[in-house]
Every structure is written in C-alpha cells, then in structure tokens.
Amino acid sequence: MDKHVALISGAGRGIGAATAKMLASEGVAVGVLDVLLDEAEAVAQQIRDAGYQALALKCDVGLREDVENAISTVEKEFGPITILVNNAGVGGPFHRVDQVSDDEWEWIMNTNLKSVFLFTRNLLPKMKEQGFGRIVNIASIQGLYGSAHSSTYVASKHGMIGYTKTIAAEWGEHGITCNAICPGYVDTALGVQTDKISDYMQRVLAKSPVKRIAKPEEIAALVRHLVGPHGGYINGSSYVIDGGITSHVGITSDL
Ligand SMILES: NC(=O)c1ccc[n+]([C@@H]2O[C@H](COP(=O)([O-])OP(=O)(O)OC[C@H]3O[C@@H](n4cnc5c(N)ncnc54)[C@H](O)[C@@H]3O)[C@@H](O)[C@H]2O)c1
C-alpha cells in the first residue's frame, strides 16, 4: 500500500497507535495525530525506526484550525491523503443525564463527533477529485446500544454511525468508502486495562463468550482490511468486534 497516505487521529496510544503501526508496516505513510504530542512523537519514531514513514502532529480534533493545519501539513509532507481514520475519542465521567454539564457535553461531542465532521468535510472533495478515499470511524458497541451513565458518549457514537452511513450513501460513487468499527472492551487507557479490571468488568468477562478483552491490534487489523485492496465493496457498514458480548441478551441481566 505504498502509494497511500493516512491520517489517524488519537494515534498517540491505544487503538490509534496500533493502527498507525499496522498501516505503516504495509507501506502507508501515516500522519500520527494526537493532542498529546510526546505520545504521538514516540509512535512516529517507532514507525520510522522500523523503516517506514510517519509524521507526528499535535492536533486537538475538536478545533477546526488544528484539523486544517494537520491536513495541510501531512499533504505537504507525503502528498494527497487517501485514508482517514477517525479514532480520537474520550469517554468522560460515568453519571446520569441530569448530572452532565454543558462543558462535559461539548468536550465529548466535539472530540468524538464534531471532529469526524471537520476531517471528513475537508477531505471528501479532495478524495472525490482523486477518485479514491477510505474512511474508517472508530465507534463503539455503545454506538449501537444504550448504556446507563454514559449518555453523551453513547449519543456521540450513535451519531458517528449515522454519519458513516450517510457519507457512504453520498460519496460511494466517487470511489470513496466509509465504514465504522464498533469495539467492545479493548485493552487501552480509555477502555479496560488488563491490570485494572473492575469487579463489574470481571462479571461481564465471566459471562462473555471469549472471556477476555481485545488487544488494540485486533481492531487495527480490521481497519487494515477496510482500507486495503480487498475492502472496496464494503461501504456504510458497522462492524462489531466484541468477542460476542453483544451477541447474547443475557449478558447484563443479572450482573
Ligand atoms: N478501548 C475500548 O474499550 C474502546 C471500546 C469502544 C470504542 N473505543 C473507541 O476507540 C477509540 C480509541 O480509543 P482507545 O481505546 O485507543 O483510547 P486511548 O485513550 O488509549 O486513545 C485515545 C487517544 O485519543 C487522544 N485524544 C483524546 N482527545 C483528543 C483530542 N481532542 N484531539 C486529539 N486526540 C485526542 C488521546 O490523547 C489518546 O491518545 C475511541 O474513539 C474510543 O471511543 C474504545
């Protein structure tokens, strides 16, 4: 895939970092974007040390100026962007709807959803001109189901999936595909770190079919397929990767 250039948001750690490394190892030149510049730098350095191409950039994905700057810097360095992975995300505190502040709502919605709009709106016309584009949005199983005490996160991820389907419908004829991935529980700072599994999560995992959380690389591998040479007919889809957790209705009934 050495003619491709990817922008990956939130790539300083977790799923984004795993995706950046995996795509780079396929020859893709990657823009490693994160609000945490040191983390993004470390990932980009590992990629370059392995002999591939990467550029780290500080970018707050909820800010239009940062998004535009990241896009133009990566274009100047590597050429036209062919792959966009909207991965940056925040979970926010767990509490009820009536306890959510305006600031919290804006922070989560700007980071998880407005960011997708900012990147996508900018890149779609260029991808149309190229006649090629691959967009992958990292949503969540909480983009498909409700979840008590996570209303803003749930709303942002449902919005992401609706947006994904609409981009697919509008832009498919121009060689652009847009899909979402819905992870369950992944071993990252935002998700469930293997060394800090709560009692609640122990009970979820005990009842889950695969009995473990995912590795970030297991999500990255699906991104690689969706943007790779055999992904072109997949458009507007949302892929659950949760080890089967949402496949059975009894999972949370008596936790
Ligand atoms: N880990 C899970 O269990 C899980 C499950 C479902 C969905 N997801 C989704 O996967 C995506 C990646 O999460 P992760 O689990 O790798 O978490 P993570 O916290 O390890 O990584 C998220 C990255 O996004 C960056 N980020 C946060 N706010 C940002 C901003 N405003 N601008 C730029 N970067 C920002 C963080 O600095 C971090 O590097 C998120 O969208 C998350 O909602 C994760």
UniProtKB/TrEMBL annotation:
It holds the Pfam family adh_short. GO terms for molecular function: 3-oxoacyl-[acyl-carrier-protein] reductase (NADPH) activity. Signal peptide: none annotated. It comes from the Bacteria. Its EC number is 1.1.1.100. InterPro entries: NAD(P)-bd_dom_sf, Sc_DH/Rdtase_CS, SDR, SDR_fam. Keywords: Oxidoreductase. It is an enzyme of class 1 (oxidoreductase). Belongs to the short-chain dehydrogenases/reductases (SDR) family. This is 3-oxoacyl-ACP reductase FabG. The lineage of its organism: Bacteria, Bacillati, Bacillota, Bacilli, Bacillales.
